[in-house]
Amino acid sequence: MKFSLPKSRLSNYLQNILQVVPSKSTLPILTNVLVEALENKLKISATDLDISITASMECKVVKKGSVSLPARILFEIIRELPESDISFETTASRIEIKIPNGSYKIATVSPEDYPKLPAVNTKKEIKITGKDLVSMVKKTTFACSDDETRPALNGVLWQTKGDKMQMVATDGHRLARMAVENKKLKGMYDDVIVPPKVLNLLAKFLDEADSEVGIIFGENNIIFNLGDIVLTSRLIEGPYPNFEQVIPAESDKKLVIAKDELARAVRRVSTLSNALTHQVKFQLKSGSLTLSTTNADVGGEGKEVLECDYNGDTVELGYNANYINDILGKIDSNDTIFELSSPVAAGLVYATDTPKDDFLCLIMPLRLAE
Amino acid sequence: MHADRIAGTYLFHDPGGRGDWYLAIALAALLNCEQPEQTDQPDFPVLPCGSCRVCHQIASLNFEGFHFALPISKHKNLDEAAELTAEILARKKAEPFGMLSAATYTSIPIATAREIKKRLSLKASPGIRRIVIFYEMERMLQSSADALLKIIEEPPADTVMVLTTRNPEALLPTIRSRARLVRLDRVPEVAAVHYLKSEYQLADKKAQLLARTSEGSLGRAIEMAGVDDDSSQRAVGFLLFRSLFQDQSPDTLSHMAELLSPRDLGQAEELLELWQSLLRDCTYYATTGDEEALINIDFISELPRLASALKGGEQIADIVSQIKIALADIKGKVHIQGALMALALKIKAELNVTHRSV
Questions:
Q1: What is the rounded distance in angstroms from the CA atom of residue B242 to the CA atom of residue B230?
Q2: B187-196: b or e for each residue (b if 16 or more CB lie within 10 Å)?
Q3: At A280, which helix (H) or strand (E)?
Q4: At a CB cut-off of 8 Å and minimum separation 6, what does B191 contact?
Q5: How many C-beta atoms surround the C-beta of residue B182 within 10 A?
Q6: Distance separating alpha carbons of residues A151 and A43, to the nearest angstrom
Q7: How far apart are CA B327 and CA B273, in angstroms?
Q8: Cα A45 from Cα A223, distance rounded (Å)
């Protein structure tokens, strides 16, 4: 195998690829990358067995071939090199990296030892706007659970519903649901549960918001084709719990409040909240919201009164301040709406400028301490 | 074993060095080989080819379907746990019959089990049968093992769980009842001799000695093959055993303190297992006078003299029982040297060496 390409091109792709390479693994081969020199193209792949990534780049290939070599060593050498063309050539069991003023040699492993990566069949590919995808990912993945006893909740449910597709995530304490219009997926696929790690990685790579992403839904995996980068992830076994039944159809109390003002007040008050529950009390009275907390451990208490648009009965509810702020951080409008009923029922939170069918968060209240 | 009649969870019972690891890896190859070979052996109608890409990956423990939970020493985080696990895997790759050291207290971390559980919730790659190996399961906290009951009872699709243990009784009954128990027989002496000669280039006589004295544990035979004769643990163990019969002074106890590490559980276990074996030989010789069937043939010149010091069934049963109790005690984290010294005193009292010696 023999090829050459500019340092900056290789370095940029390696940086992306490294995000999938585990720093330590019980399977040593996973700390390697697979390098394949094809017709005028170089492919570098990495996998942690859950997520795989392949980057393809233009390259001058003198002799085709493939090899597996340690990812971090390769990256650290390339990163420190000055900008120039770098050529690579394999010998018996090593690869030589030639630069204008020297060379490096790294031991290689047979490409046969590298795990088989899923094939990309572009005929089954469906194009989706990157902007929609990133938006759904950014507004839902935060609510995923990390409790291994409920594995389905460790992922994001991606489903098609009528003319819309939606992503849903919940950890049992809060839920986020975002839907966008997309007729291409209409009725074509079963629901899939996608690990948040690959979705977050995808959002990071999709810097051009208007670009299109090719998606291939497999039986066990999902493939995202970004052109020069292909991301693959194994899917999580279902079924996903019936989340619809926890979303209240009706709520008799509605609060509209300035989002940033509320977020800042919650952050301030929560500094004195219980370190475990982060509980902050919301007391709603006509025209005002009082946030308060007490902490016996540090002998402190905090209280702030905010103006708001509320005309219902007086009610007191407890919420985890972190969950409230996570949700407020995902709302784009200046004001936010809370739909509430009783102190033990789920509350809905959504933006004033987006229909709640398109983006909705749900939060479960905490039982207030006596 | 038929690839299409595979249980969801196996429990391999291997008292040590009989090949539980080798069997687990062979099972992975059988289930995943790309070109399995048909045979005319009724017990093994299909065998892995050993040469395809997947067989090669499995042999080098680089197969994507593997998930390992091995007993490791204390560590700070998952990365360090992965590093310690990788070290054991490298040793297992080099010698699948090799036994894990019992010298330090190790356990299967709950974090590793959780991580595996989480990864198993992802769908398997097409065509892959995942093999999850919980090695020496008794070294996992019971509370942690409890958390695995569900996947042990009903592993995810395309997944086979392999639990191994040296002592099934040490596992939760709920785990035992959910797995298909496979008890590994002793490795036949002929097979052990062949292995030692071919893999370690041992001379015929030494290979036979090790195969015989290891009593069906190829792992132990390999361990002994690596020990220099002069510092042989066996030699030390035998000297201490002999001094139980001969020594009228308290020197045995001071020798023990000098020769045995106060923290080396593995060394203490090996010593007591050797004593059990020597006692069996002495009993057998005292009863039959037959030297041919003795196991510890490296001490054959001295065993008849020691056998003559034994008084009979009741005394021997008492000593055997004391050794068993001491073995259980040292595994229960009591002070190792203290337990061994107490045992030595009891055996001496049983043998009444202050009044009679050989």
A1: 17
A2: bebeebbebb
A3: strand A279-285
A4: B218
A5: 17
A6: 33
A7: 8
A8: 14
- Report the C-alpha gap between A337 and A350 in whole angstroms: 5
**Does residue A213 sit in helix, strand or coil?**
strand
- A163-219 confidence digits (pLDDT tens): 888 999 999 999 999 999 877 776 666 789 999 999 999 998 886 667 889 999 888
The amino acid present at B73, given as its one-letter code, is S
Place of tokens 């340092």: A7
Pairing between strand A300-307 and A315-320?
unpaired
Name which of B168, B61, B151 is nearest B115 in CA terms: B151
CA–CA distance, A70 with A74 (Å, rounded to integer)? 6
Q: How many CA atoms lie within 13 A of A202 on its CB side?
A: 35
**A50: which chain B residues are within 8 Å (Cβ-Cβ)?**
119, 122
Phi and psi angles of residue B312, each rounded to the nearest 5 degrees, phi first:
155, -175
The distance of B84 to chain A (nearest Cα, Å) reads: 9
Q: What is the pLDDT of residues B63-117, one digit of tens each?
A: 999 999 999 988 888 888 888 999 999 999 999 999 886 656 788 988 888 888 8
A245 in reach of chain B (CB within 8 A): no
Cis peptide before B36 (omega within 30 of 0): no
Taking the CB of residue A286, how many other CB atoms lie within 10 A of it?
11
Tell me which residue of A229, A106, A142, A128 sits closest to A181, measured CA to CA: A128
How many CB atoms sit inside 10 A of residue B134's CB?
28
3-state secondary structure of A57: strand
Half-sphere exposure (Cβ direction) of A359: Cα atoms closer than 13 Å: 21
Q: In this structure, which amino acid lies at residue B2?
A: H
Whether ipTM tops 0.90, in short, is no
Asked if A329 has any chain B CB less than 8 Å from its own CB, the reply is no
Cβ neighbours of residue B224 closer than 8 Å, sequence gap 6 or more: B210, B213, B214, B232, B233, B234
Cα–Cα–Cα angle for A352, A353, A359, rounded to 5 degrees: 85
Identify the structural domains of chain A with CATH numbers, from first to last.
Answer: 2-113 (3.10.150.10), 122-242 (3.10.150.10), 247-363 (3.10.150.10)
Q: Which residue has the tokens 């539980």?
A: B20
Structure confidence by residue, pLDDT tens digits, B296-329: 888 888 888 888 888 877 888 889 899 998 888 8
Report the interhelical angle of B265-288 vs B313-331 (nearest 10°). Answer: 170
pLDDT value at B229 more than 70: no
Q: Which of A113, A151, A195 has the CB atom closest to B57's CB atom?
A: A113
Token pair recorded at residue B14:
């291997």
C-alpha–C-alpha distance, residues B156 and B5, integer Å: 16
Residue B103, pLDDT score: 57
First to last CA, chain B: 53
Give chain A's end-to-end CA distance (angstroms, integer): 72
Contacting A with CB below 8 Å, chain B residues are: 53, 56-57, 60-64, 66, 68, 78-80, 82-83, 85-86, 89, 114, 117-119, 121-126, 147, 156-157
Of the partner residues B62, B123, B156, the one whose CB lies closest to the CB of residue A235: B123
More confident call, A76 vs B291: A76
Q: Tell me the nearest-neighbour CA distance from B314 into chain A, angstroms.
A: 51
In chain B, alpha helices (H): 20-32, 53-59, 78-94, 110-120, 142-146, 149-153, 173-176, 189-200, 204-213, 218-225, 233-246, 251-259, 265-288, 303-307, 313-331, 336-351
Residue B214 has pLDDT above 60, yes or no: yes
Nearest-CA distance A341 → chain B (Å): 36
CB A220 within 8 A of CB B125: yes
The Cα-based distances of B241 to B279, B323, B348 in angstroms read 9, 12, 10
C-alpha distances in angstroms, B220 versus A30, B95, B211, B276? 33, 12, 9, 15
